[in-house]
Amino acid sequence: MQKNVTYDFKAELQAGERKFGQLIGPGNDPAATVRALKHFGYDFIMVDLEHSLVCKETVYSYIRAAREMAMPVLIRPEENTAHFRCYLDAGVNGLMLPQVNTLEEAKHVINQAYMPPIGHRGSGIGTSPYLHDFQNFAEVPYLAITEYINNNTLVFPQTESLQGIGNLPDILRLEGITGTIVGCFDLVLNIGNINPKALRGEVLTTHLMEERIRQIAKICKEAGKVAGIGSFPPKGLAKWAKEGYQLFLIGYVIDGNVESLRPLITEAKSLMS
Known about the structure:
By secondary structure, the chain is α/β, with parallel strands linked by helices. It has helices at residues 5-14, 30-40, 56-68, 85-90, 103-113, 142-151, 162-172, 184-191, 207-223, 234-241, 262-272; strands at 19-24, 45-48, 73-76, 94-97, 154-159, 179-182, 226-229, 247-253.
């Protein structure tokens, strides 16, 4: 079992590398799905619990499969106040939290996601071997284990409102916040003034929306934190890569359609090379 997969992943992001993942919904075989995504060139998986029906036992299967492929596994919980600690204690490596608009909401996430001294997460050590990558408790000091878990945890509050953008500089200063991921369609709804005839893809390419996406990238750069984005086709993601975005969500896996994600990441990587 490879150690420090997520810790190394964070270090590579801090060094400026680009990373690619996707959202995973229901109706898929976890082991086959993760193997395929690894083969296609994806760097991490993101299981979607906010907008889809994926049960806890299935998430555990994704944890097992992701460990075998040495890929970080993240979830998007149902709410930013959801009871996500059981997923973390099972071995999920990180969170993409929806609708984090205030500093107080971000602090709550940190307290729930990290063990002391960063947060106040309860100790579930010993409930799942994937939490600490099968390290032997008889040989490793207890505080070394808690530090290992903190080091291998990612927290990405989503920026999905004008209020969230306004508070983003303060949110990114918090210890434990890895960066932010833009919730593009929620953000455009929050901004408003949408052309009634605009199609789904068109609402993200208005001047006002693009200015906000650039603003988020600038705030992340100034804070030294990671800027992530999805919702766009590969050509659109390549455009935002030039603006400083480096974490990308490409495609949605549902009902066994994983093969359809192969051309998406191939095109995205080609455009960003």
